[in-house]
Amino acid sequence: MTESPLVGIVLVSHSGPVATAVVDLASGLAGGKALAPVAAAGGTPDGGLGTSADLIAAAARSVDRGAGVALLVDLGSAVLTVKALLAEDDELPPGSRLVDAPFVEGAVAAVVTASAGADLDAVEAAAREAYAYRKE
Amino acid sequence: MLDAEFFRRWMTATAAAVDREATRLTELDSPIGDADHGSNLRRGFTAVATVLEKEAPGTPGAVLVLAGRQLISTVGGASGPLYGTLLRRTGKELGDAPEVSAEQLAAALRAGVEAVTKLGGAVPGDKTMVDALDPAVAALATSFSAAARAAAAGAEATVPLIARKGRASYLGERSIGHQDPGATSSALLIAALAEAAGEDGAGA
């Protein structure tokens, strides 16, 4: 393990409980001593279904250790909101990136990889690779 | 020339139109969407009207950038980043000039629509807001009222289309026969522009 900071992960879902549960699942499966910072940004601030730019920005700031932030999203407005935030220079921490990956499998891969100290490119590659895991 | 006050009037007129039509927008969103378009946009544009009154930005570009940012942070559905990107991109194109011409607005709005197309991946004919905005921008060279009529016609023309973007696209051919809610609210936005210009071009 090096001293370099870990990549942060943000999980964005239309549902607060889904985002939180996937954070728990990915963190639990990653185990290990040095767990990468992971935050949920699910639903709207009042607990409804939807996407909140403010929750996403706050989650990204909370996991930013200076090594970049990988954002995984479920669908629709979650995708569009993260893209719209990334189109601005100052809404998300430097090195923030939308990672095109399946939400659950990609989250597990990203958290495991980031916790091992991998850089943002490697975290993104691991999450994207989860698309290739066939189930039959 | 169009000053910051004109753009604030445009946003206020849009907020009033969205508030007036919120029930209809949500009804259109019920068979092919998740029945939240009217309430989401009403929340967003109400917040836009409030923040514009409070902060009173001094240039056309600043009005639209602030409005766009507000929509992205308050709407909670896909229309937030889409309309937010439309207004923010348009505002950035206008720069910090204290007044802009109708031609400059038309060019800036064209860039805004292109940004929406890039963000959402929709092209004309996909049964989205682009189907109202694209003809509106083309007609803006003629007049604000022509743009409003073109947007309304574009929205109506989405009825026979198959949705190819967003949640409605899951329905495939079952989306035929319904007017797209996003195209409908886009027509309200352009009608409000004509209203702000003092041209009654909204039509039916």
UniProtKB/TrEMBL annotation, chain A:
The keyword Lyase does not apply. Residues 6-136 form the PTS EIIA type-4 domain. This is PTS fructose transporter subunit IIA. One of its GO terms (cellular component) is membrane. It comes from the Bacteria. It comes from Streptomyces mesophilus. GO terms for molecular function: phosphoenolpyruvate-glycerone phosphotransferase activity. Keywords: Transferase. The lineage of its organism: Bacteria, Bacillati, Actinomycetota, Actinomycetes, Kitasatosporales.
From TrEMBL, chain B:
One of its GO terms (cellular component) is cytosol. The keyword Membrane does not apply. This is Dihydroxyacetone kinase subunit L. GO terms for molecular function: glycerone kinase activity. NCBIfam families: dha_L_ycgS. Keywords: Kinase, Transferase. Pfam families: Dak2 (PF02734). Residues 5-195 form the DhaL domain. It comes from Streptomyces mesophilus. One of its GO terms (biological process) is glycerol catabolic process. Coiled coil: none annotated. SUPFAM superfamilies: DhaL-like (SSF101473). It comes from the Bacteria. InterPro entries: DhaK_L_YcgS, DhaL_dom, DhaL_dom_sf, Dihydroxyacetone_Kinase.
